[in-house]
Model the fold of this input.
Amino acid sequence: MNASYRGSARVVGNGSIAGGSYDTVRIVGDSEVLGPIECDTFSCMGNCKIKGHVHADKLFKVTGDVTVEGEWSGEELKLLGQLNVRGNVRGRIVKVTGNLEAQGSVEAEHLTIKGAITVDGLINAEHADIQLYGPCRVKEIGGRRIDIRRSSWMSVKNWIKSQMKTELTVSVIEGDDITLAYTKADIVRGNKVHIGKGCEIGRVEYRRSLHVARTAKTGVEVRL
Amino acid sequence: MEQELISKKDLLEEMGISYGQLYRWKRKRLIPEEWFIRKSTFTGQETFFPKGLILGRISHILSMKDDLSLDELVGKLSTLQSDIRLRIEEMHGRIVSPITMDRYAEKMLTDGTLAFDQAFYLFVADWLHRVLPGGMTEEEGARLIKLLVSRIPQLEERACNLVVLQTAGKQRVILLLEGGPLHTEESTVIAASLSIDEAAEAFKAKLYAYE
Done:
């Protein structure tokens, strides 16, 4: 985009915004963005549906429920609530408290998730930190450091009412430093692998060290 | 001619790199998506790479990463693709027809391999040879390649078209045209026209294709 003046958009209540290039977009209430959008910062409290790609140069902040019918890209994604993306998610920092669903891949330098996540493609992150609050499903996870654990709150919640399984189902996990809990995976490959409580792993391939908790189940363990 | 593949495990072993680095380079688009080839093996699904391409690319990244930051490297690699060297057997017949290879490849070779852009020029020459009625003569092809070699690098990724004009006297003129329509007088016809960008896409698709 050229560096000419870009306007800002603001919706309070009900309304819609045309796609295009903006400085800041602020939505409080319920709104629709009618086309692809490019902006510095985007903030939404409430509901929003974006019909196209989204790019946020600085910050994309959502408290509520957002659907993106395209790709999401930007610097930082902060989510409290639910985000549904038709395509890929590419950002530097992705912080999710709530539910993230992506039909493509998710790429980030720092990925922090507290909640549930469903990704049909690959999660590729320098550091992926996933705290499970609900059932998660991902096709593949790759990166340098991968931490998957169950939130400590879940034990309290299960005590009151046991519900759907709070665990992650994934086909392949590959990384340098892997710590897992409550994960079902076909293959785990890494340098330092720690397999904690409640894991079911088909095949583990490791280089430096492997630690398996007593309650975890693993099929084949291979040191390369 | 089938491409030789290397599994991810062997690649990490051979280059002495880690999963973290490989995934980081993938995120930065230093390694194109098309190079990740999924195949199922008896130990489950594994990822493979075209061996020649990936080994070249990774040693290139490793050698440059001391001097440049990763982001600077991204800009460098995407335009130049200078580290890609193609073995002549990989090209022969699969990407460029034997007749074109035999005519022009000889002079460009350095120890049995071609640079990415040289291979691309051969691909363009081969395409023209097939499209033009009666094909190109060897002399025409040599002129074409000379034109491409001298002009394409100067264009710096700007869009352009390769146009072949044919005069009534069956003489052919080859031009590189940067933007704008071309109008000819009636005795001259446009025998072929090719967008260099589209050709590059087609070339890459062929190059990375794996059956």
